[in-house]
Amino acid sequence: MPQTVQAVVAPGKGRPAEVRDIVVPDPGPGEVTVRVQACGICRTDLHYRDGVINDDYPFLLGHEASGVVEQVGPGVHDVAPGDFVILNWRAVCGRCRPCRRGVPTACVNELGATQKMTLTTGEPLTPALGIGALAELTLVHSGQCTPVDPAVDPAVAGLVGCGAMSGLGAALNTGNVRPGDSVAVIGVGGVGAAAVAGARLAGATRIIAADIDPRKLSWAAELGATDVIDVTSATDVVGAIKELTGGLGADVVIDAAGYPETWQQAFYARSIGGTFVLVARPDAGMRLEMPLLDAFLHGGTYKTCWYGDCLPSRDFPALVDLHLQGRLPLEQFVTERIGLTDVEKAFDSLRRGEVLRSVAVLG
Predict the structure, then answer these.
(1) What mean pLDDT, rounded, does the chain reach?
(2) Which of 68, 225, 340, 344 is the most exposed place for a label (fewest CB within 10 A)?
(3) Mind telling me which SUPFAM superfamilies this protein's record contains (predicted)?
């Protein structure tokens, strides 16, 4: 029967998130319920709270999570009660044209739960990124559950479901960083720091981190950056990156900040014929202006990276295994562990750049 649990809800634009009772229905065909153990506080949740994404309030926040499957609905065969899973907000259908062409990362028919979770008043909730995991229990499509080794710390595992995967994938999947490459990452918050870790994992020999925050630069150095650039004191970020790469520019440059200024820095800081990856989500009102001739003369590749161009069933277990082997220090991304009632404080810490990730621990 439906269960009433506690969850973090954004009631309206500009209003603080609240811990409210919500009703989670029994899973229907293709659906499962997951007892959430940990959920990261991502900037996307803050965007939902502030109305940056859309205005389908009230929102059930949270999407960067791990937990244990509690119930499965009819027709579910890929997961079972008791499975430890990471929730993924991009569940591919396997049937659309991109999927049939062998490009599931470009799926145009993503899967999600059909039923709605509600407030106790019956008002339907919009789950953040189709998940809504800042809750003791959530309802998702079975395809949004990726089983991984249960030996992993749930607080660490959940981060693979969004921020860590986005940054790691920007280097490993989209940027295709190879051993011996030089890599520059502009903006080393949670996603950018993960890109640094991904570049190190891929075997890059020079990894340059650029940011305005010395604290983030210190974290990036711990995760594998060989050089750091404090943007507040560097008058020419492009020149600094070129100086560190023998005047050539980096083989791969990743923009994890998402501003017109950082876009241009990343474009010009790469080597001739190099790769430029935009992984940060720009605001809708941002505009870019630059000489088209420069794009022609510079050559190379420009790519946008969405969700690390990942295939969760392939990438999540592999990254967890690398972490458990001691080769990927995902635990360094967990800056603090909090409860559901601390989410607004975590948003403040996120705005001030004080954390890589605050993680709500529920069980």
Answers:
(1) 95
(2) 344
(3) GroES-like (SSF50129), NAD(P)-binding Rossmann-fold domains (SSF51735)
CA dihedral 312, 318, 322, 325 (to 10 degrees): 130
Q: How does pLDDT run across 252-288, given as a tens digit for each residue?
A: 999 999 999 999 999 999 999 999 999 998 888 899 9
Assess whether 175 and 303 both reside in one domain.
yes
Taking the C-alpha atoms of residue 245 and residue 247, their distance in angstroms, rounded to an integer, is 6
Q: Average pLDDT of 2-27?
A: 97
Give every CB contact of residue 281 below 8 A, 6+ residues apart in sequence: 258
Quick count: other Cβ atoms within 10 Å of Cβ 109?
A: 13
Nearest-angstrom CA–CA distance, 159 and 334 = 9
Whether residues 118 and 137 fall in one domain: yes
Q: Check whether 243 has a pLDDT greater than 80.
A: yes
CATH number (domain holding residue 141): 3.90.180.10
The CATH number for 200's domain is 3.40.50.720
Q: What is the CA radius of gyration of the chain?
A: 20
pLDDT greater than 80 at residue 296: yes
User: What's the CA gap between 78 and 142, in Å, rounded?
Assistant: 7
Count of alpha carbons within 13 angstroms of residue 219, beta-carbon side: 26
Model pLDDT for residues 15-49, shown as the tens digit of each residue: 999 999 999 999 999 999 999 999 999 999 999 99
Q: Which residues form the domain of 176?
A: 168-307
The whole-number pLDDT of residue 93 equals: 85
Residue 196 has pLDDT above 80, yes or no: yes
CB count in 10 Å sphere of residue 50 = 13
* 228 plus 299 within the same structural domain: yes
Q: How many distinct structural domains can be found in the chain?
A: 2
As given in the structure block, the two tokens for residue 346 are 């975590």
Asked whether the beta carbons of 35 and 70 are under 8 A apart, the reply is yes
Q: Would you mind telling me the total number of residues written for the chain in this entry?
A: 363
